[in-house]
Write a structure and sequence with these properties.
The complex is a heterodimer of chains A (98) and B (236). Chain A is mainly α and 98 residues long. Chain A is built from 4 helices and no strands. Chain B is mainly alpha-helical. Chain B folds into 2 domains: 159 residues, no CATH class; 52 residues, no CATH class. In chain B, helix 1 crosses helix 2, helix 5 packs parallel to helix 7 and helix 6 packs parallel to helix 8. Classes of the chains: A mainly alpha (98), B mainly alpha (236).
Chain lengths: 98, 236
């Protein structure tokens, strides 16, 4: 069953990538469709992060520590890996203190 | 020809290293979700997406339907259609149709960005060189992450569980700082997502459905309220 899920994920994703490179090669002119697609990565990543991140660790408090550290470092334009690493570290330290 | 391939490989190295660490945390989450090391690696090798795989994992864990899986992947990964369209226009005339089928496989956000940043015309050897190491890094990272998740103590696993979320935050916040509409649409998405999560009336909405609803509603609101200017839409 899990392989069926994985196969569907892979096929849908590949079709999205391959069709515009092979079949539909016209540019999308519609400004609203382009705008919609421009916002998708940000809305989707945010919707997946909140509130799920609050329940990803051993306790709400350690999760909040991770969120706080990630937000501050991201605000300071740190790299993805730096933000992620320090968020993990914050969770780890918070859980040792609780 | 050979030079192009080597240039591609070189440009792929930093992407591959970044991918290894991101997919390492995907591997840990996948293991927590009940996938085996091999399944985690197969998922990464065949999908080459971060947000899409992560959402897919949530659907697998929640036991969602296959239709829900297909719809979620379609919405979340639809942006790749835009990138493939742009990429299509920058490929050299010499790239054959068959080669296009290969190039499409790993047209990820980062590989697309590197290809767009490459000053010269994009040949097949360059694109193949650019993609090969990131594909290996992404696949190996998931396998190693899932394998390590078996050995690591719970406290470390708990901490690593937030790694991917941390990266998501690191993608959204700098963009939100630069463009107010991105901030507003992202906040709207978070609010909707929390509403669906906490409102008892919405308890029937599954995790995958919630991602689709929030993504579509917030992005549509953004498109209507703050349509992007001419070429702005190709960023991101």
């Amino acid at each position: 069953m899990i392989y069926l899920y994985i196969a569907i994920m892979a096929v849908v994703t590949y079709l999205i990538r391959v069709l515009p490179l092979t079949v539909f090669r016209k540019k999308i002119e519609n400004r609203y469709i382009r705008s919609f697609l421009y916002y998708v990565p940000y809305t989707c990543l945010t919707a997946m992060t909140f509130p799920a991140i609050l329940y990803a660790t051993g306790s709400r408090l350690s999760a909040l520590a991770g969120v706080a550290v990630a937000v501050v470092l991201a605000f300071c334009n740190r790299s993805l890996v730096t933000v992620a690493a320090f968020a993990c570290l914050a969770v780890f330290v918070a859980e040792q203190m609780i | 020809m050979k030079q192009d391939f080597q240039n591609g490989l070189k440009d792929g190295v930093p992407i591959a290293l970044g991918y290894f660490s991101v997919s390492f945390s995907f591997g840990i989450l996948a293991l927590g979700g009940g996938l085996t090391v091999f399944q985690a690696a197969v998922t990464s090798f065949t999908n080459m997406t971060s947000a899409g795989q992560f959402a897919g994992l949530q659907i697998i864990v929640a036991g969602g339907t296959l239709l829900e899986m297909a719809a979620t992947q379609f919405i979340i990964n639809l942006r790749y259609a835009l990138m493939s369209l742009s990429l299509s226009q920058k490929l050299s005339e010499a790239v054959t149709l068959r080669q296009r089928f290969v190039i499409a496989f790993a047209n990820t956000d980062e590989i697309f960005a590197a290809a767009m940043g490459h000053g010269k015309e994009l040949t097949f050897p360059y694109m193949a060189g650019l993609q090969i190491l990131p594909i290996l890094g992404w696949t190996a990272g998931s396998a190693v992450g899932a394998a390590a998740g078996n050995i690591l103590p719970a406290a470390v696993n708990n901490a690593l569980n937030v790694a991917l979320y941390g990266m998501f935050i690191a993608v959204v916040i700098p963009a939100a700082k630069k463009a107010r509409p991105v901030l507003l649409t992202a906040v709207l998405a978070a609010l909707l997502s929390c509403l669906i999560y906490y409102l008892p009336a919405c308890s029937g909405i599954s995790a995958g459905m919630s991602i689709i609803v929030c993504t579509v509603a917030a992005s549509a609101a953004g498109a209507v309220l703050f349509p992007v200017k001419d070429e702005g839409g190709s960023e991101g």
